[in-house]
Amino acid sequence: MSDKNLTQKIIEKIEQHKLKPKPKWEFILKEYFVWALATISLIIGSLGFAVVIYMIKNNDWDLYDRVSPSLFSFVFASLPYFWIILLAIFILLVYYIFRQTKAGYKHRIVLIFIFSIVLSILLGTIFYSTGLGAKLERQFDERLPIYRRLMDTRMRMWDRPKDSGILAGRILNILNQQELNLEDLHNRHWIVIYNQEILPPHMTLSPNMRIKVIGKEIGESRFQAIHIRPFMGGKRRLLQKSPVYVK
Amino acid sequence: MLTQDKCNNKSDEELVQLTLKSQDFFYCLVKNYEAKLTRYIRRISSYSQEDIEDLLQEIFIKVYKNLNAFDDSLKFSSWIYRIAHNETISHFRKQKSRPQTVTSDNEDDIFNNIASDFNLEKETDTKISREKISQVLAKLDIKYREVLVLKFFEDKSYQEMSDILKKPTSTIGTLINRAKKNFFEKLKELNLKI
Fold first, then answer.
1. pLDDT means over runs of 10, chain A (247 residues)
2. Residues of A in contact with B51 (CB under 8 A)
3. Interface predicted TM-score of the whole assembly (ipTM), two decimals
4. Residue B97: which of B136, B58, B44, B137 has the closest Cα?
5. What pTM was estimated for this model as a whole?
6. With an 8 Å Cβ cutoff, are A11 and B64 in contact?
7. Which candidate from B65, B166, B171 shows the least CB-CB separation from A22?
8. I need a surface site. Which of A17, A137, A182, B111 has the fewest CB within 10 A?
9. How close does chain B come to A24, measured CA to CA in Å?
């Protein structure tokens, strides 16, 4: 190979094709874009974590022994897998995108993972404390039928009136101050007998509201309530608009 | 075109800045790295001279077009080796070829360094020829061969290797250790009794 020839060929090619170095702003913009993507992924993952906290915290732990043989099987059955998978996907994305930044390769894989997990937990906890976790879960529940079906499948373990004394579903209509019509998660219709004293403070029953009723079956499609609580969520949920259950 | 005199006593980083102002200075950068990159590509790929020349053209054109992406927190040599490495590996994968030997010219010292660093003579109780080392290197997976080539043939530091291969320095250390292990395994496969 003649060195001179190769050098000449390269210079000639540059001149012939009028090649120019790409402007610096293109590279700066690309780097900003990558960082923006990483930040967005981190925020979405953190929102997922906020919902995970919200759902775990409002999991009716006091009733687990009614629906599950052990705490372990209850945890296994009631974990919010949808949100955990979403969180995992976005932690992976943060890792992958961070690796595309200029200095991303310099850091150890484990450290990047730990860093993105810790950041997601911190941000997610902040989001949860501002109520974003609950809001986001409610938006998904109201607007995404697929999500609602997924959640209903998960919540069906609560709908066991015979053996656990828990009925879960949505209010079809309020018949009077002591009776309401309810459609459970297995699409069976019930008349629930209750009184206002068993409702938690701030809770007002209304059609389409989803609830859990603790009590016992007292006849064909009749259920005596000793306690009523929102389908999911504590006081915060009660103060918000109730989810609408659309078939 | 510039003469070699204009290139003398200028660092690569200065030449990058000068090239951005005047294309003519790119001649100096090509001159500075043409031979080095030719050897490097040959060592990791065993391409023919013609293929290497084509590849070098692509590499230098890419370097020229991306000069503004050069991050001066790196050595220019690390940056240009990174581009050469990426282009070669990409080409190499497209062709799915594997070199038969790792070629080299008058580099007995390097092979002696490998033999000495790997404790080959002590481990094998026999003198391993340069040809056999070449054969074993050629049989290694590309990810192992490239770290050994960068360490022993190109004399790059861990930091430079990290910048060239875009891997953390700790991973480079691990890769070198694994490469050594693989080297001995391939040596056994070649029936070079250890």
1. 71 90 96 96 96 90 85 89 95 94 91 93 96 91 86 80 87 91 91 89 85 90 91 50 39
2. none
3. 0.79
4. B44
5. 0.78
6. no
7. B65
8. A17
9. 5
